[in-house]
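ZP: hey, is the adenosine monophosphate complex queued? I don't see it on the tracker
AM: it wasn't, my bad. submitting now with these inputs:
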Amino acid sequence: MLNIVLFGPPGAGKGTQAQRMMDATGLPQVSTGDMLRAAVKAQSDVGLEAKNYMDAGALVPDQVIIDLIKDRMKEDDAKGGVMFDGFPRTVPQAEALAEIVDVSIVLAIDVPDERIVERICGRFSCGNCGAVYHDSFNPLPETGCTCGAFSEKRRADDTEQTVVARLDAYHQQTAPLADFYQASGLLHRIDGDRDIDLITADMLNALN
Ligand code: AMP
């Protein structure tokens, strides 16, 4: 059973790579960001609590996230292993995760700070299938998305103001996790400032 953690700064390409790895491995993607956005949309208690943190580019409190993950991991499709995307983001979250499953490998996608803003500010996804695009680096083809749709969805927090706070949260609270996983021999670093296909190939190689 494989439990993969995709680790890296906002805009590193975790979501894009998770979709590709999902196709290649059959493992479901568990994205706390996606779960929180769904909760905000549904105006659930979790969504109402999380919204202000997300709008400010700050991390949502650990206990909210840990409870979400505990519930998610009880679902049938999680039993054969999952790919965590955007979780864990703090040492307490990683400690809580260790109580729930054995992490098999942590794939850390490295992208320098100066590349993050341009990557985040131009990105959007297909409103129909969720495929990820970028105004400059991966534009929507004239014929539309591969699923046939022409709908562009942009995240409310993908703005220049919020990116600075999100990067700050990453450096203060999330980056120290690299040491945590390095110490247990699970950390595998990948240069994320390259062609998307090369990154996917490296990630799949790392699993073998
Ligand atoms: P993401 O889609 O992973 O970039 O997450 C979007 C936002 O959701 C983040 O800026 C945080 O506010 C919140 N969030 C997502 N995952 C976590 C997490 N594991 N811990 C704390 N906050 C999170």
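AM: back. Residues 4-112+174-206 form a domain with the Rossmann fold fold (CATH 3.40.50.300).
ZP: great, adding it to the tracker
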